[in-house]
Write a structure and sequence with these properties.
68% helix, 96 residues, mainly alpha, single chain
C-alpha cells in the first residue's frame, strides 16, 4: 500500500514507461507492448480501487488472473471475479 500511496502522491505522469510497465506487471496487468496511455489508465484504475475504495490487493490480483474482456469496467471486472468465487469465500469476505 505504501508504494501505491507514493505513486499516487508523486503522480502517474512522473513515471517513465519502464516504471509504468513494471508497476503494471507487478500488479498482474499486461504491460509489454501496451501504449503508455493504456499503462497509465490501468495503473490509475488500480490505485483508485485500492486506495479510495479499499479493495484488497488479493481481490485485485485475482481479478487480473481471470480472463475478463477488456471492454468491461473495473467495477464489472470485480463483480465477475466475485461471482466465480466459492460462496463460503464470498460470505467470509463480506462478514469481515
Amino acid at each position: 500500500m505504501i508504494v501505491c500511496q507514493l505513486i499516487e502522491k508523486e503522480g502517474i505522469d512522473t513515471l517513465a514507461v519502464w516504471e509504468l510497465q513494471d508497476a503494471c506487471r507487478t500488479r498482474g496487468m499486461r504491460s509489454l507492448g501496451m501504449p503508455e496511455q493504456r499503462l497509465k489508465f490501468q495503473l490509475s484504475e488500480w490505485l483508485d480501487l485500492h486506495l479510495n475504495y479499499k479493495i484488497p490487493t488479493s481481490l485485485l490480483l485475482l481479478s487480473r488472473a481471470l480472463y475478463l474482456p477488456e471492454h468491461l469496467t473495473a467495477e464489472d471486472q470485480l463483480k465477475a471475479t466475485i461471482s466465480v468465487l466459492p460462496e463460503a469465500t464470498v460470505c467470509r469476505c463480506f462478514v469481515m
